[in-house]
Amino acid sequence: MQTSYDIFFIDWEKPKKNPQKARDNEAVNVWRSIFTGNELNELQNTPLITLEFTYIVYLFFMFGIGWYYWASESPDMTREPSPYSINRVLLFLVISFVFFCTGAAEFFIRLAFSLWIPLPSHNFIDLCSVTNLSVIIFDDILHGYYIHGQSPGGLADTDSEELKHILENESHGGGRGRGLDPSDPNGQQCFEIFMSKDMRRKYDGLYSVALELEIDHLQKIAQPGAIGKYLSLIHISEPTRQAEISYAVFCLKKKKKKK
User: Fold this and answer.
1) Can you tell me whether residue 87 is helix, strand or coil?
2) Dihedral angle of Cα 28, 247, 218, 226, to the nearest 10 degrees
């Protein structure tokens, strides 16, 4: 559960010219950003290790095979009921061993099969490329991640036929590469970010100014007492998820109320 992540979406889509007004451009559609943000929100609840599978394996080995009796005060490794009482320290070690091995096995199996069955995180990276959106995630004060999602076709806000043509063209080697460096044969899209303290201070200053400007703008267009409605204009979190998160494209970061 995230509580203090800053997430920004970089939309590479260029505004289209409005044929009715030669001097004006049509605004970029925001629904691609909303959809991508919702998928990122769901991805946080998709672990590589499932508790249900872990519990089933735990019950199978502990009680089906009989590893539970290895925790007796005088274990003989026979997996048969022992006249000796169960030692709690040994029981903790046996349970920890089963959980650790089960989780590690499931993790590495899913990584091995990811070549044929993509992981949800890999699907999300593909989604970023299709929607023409890059994502910056700051999970700590001086640390974060960057997902480069610029579309190889240069656009995504189009109809299904043109989008299909762009994907087919990419499959045949057309368009720019998906990586940050188009000439990179590996097409690296994910990067780890390390920030200096000076850069962090500049970032906090710019973010505070931008947030204040947005709040001032909402106060001007909103009715008295209705600013809270606009601060939570789009809320894609589950009802049970207590998160304070800033989506730079379509949400504002909420401030804690001082008691």
Assistant:
1) coil
2) 120
Q: Which are the contacts of 100, defined by CB distance < 8 A and separation ≥ 6? A: none
**Rounded distance, CA 197 to CA 116, Å?**
42
In whole angstroms, give the CA distance from residue 228 to residue 161: 41
> How would you write 210-253 as a 3-class SS string?
HHHHHHHHHHHHCCCCCHHHHHCCCCCCCCCCCCCCEECCCCCC
Report the distance separating Cα 70 and Cα 64, nearest Å: 13
Would you say 102 and 55 are in contact if contact means Cβ atoms under 8 Å apart? no
First to last CA, the chain: 24
Per-residue pLDDT 10s for the chain (259 aa) are 455 788 889 989 887 765 555 555 667 778 888 899 899 888 888 888 888 889 999 999 888 888 888 888 776 766 677 777 888 888 899 899 999 999 999 989 988 888 888 888 889 999 998 899 999 998 888 999 999 998 888 888 887 888 888 888 877 777 777 888 877 778 889 999 998 899 889 988 888 888 888 888 777 776 555 555 444 433 333 333 334 333 333 333 444 444 4
CA-based R_g, the chain, Å? 25
Bridge partners of residue 49, in order along the sequence? none
